[in-house]
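Still learning folds. Look over my entry:

…
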Amino acid sequence: MSAQALEILLTDNLRARDLARVPGRLAFLHKGQTVEIEIEESIYRGFSINLYDGSHNTLEFRPEFGTFNWNAIAQAVTRVAERRTTTSRDGQRASVFHRYQHQYAMS
């Protein structure tokens, strides 16, 4: 499998779990928040899917029994996005709706 084929598989699987891809980037949208993902390949360990959350540690997913756990990846994207939208102490939203939310939610 190539990185491009894995990217297509990732996009299809996350779309099936109601996560829209952000055009032009390997990132997915949930509740107005964009969560970046990167596909890496290691000579020794094969492909990994890495999820980034600004100040939080990177989450890394590797195949289990030959396939990725798409539910776990989708849940991680959702958790990161929802953590960003929690209400701050002063009662204001910690996030602003991303401009892609309405435009690409149905992609």
About this structure: Helices lie at 3-15, 70-84, 100-104. DSSP finds three helices and five strands in the chain.
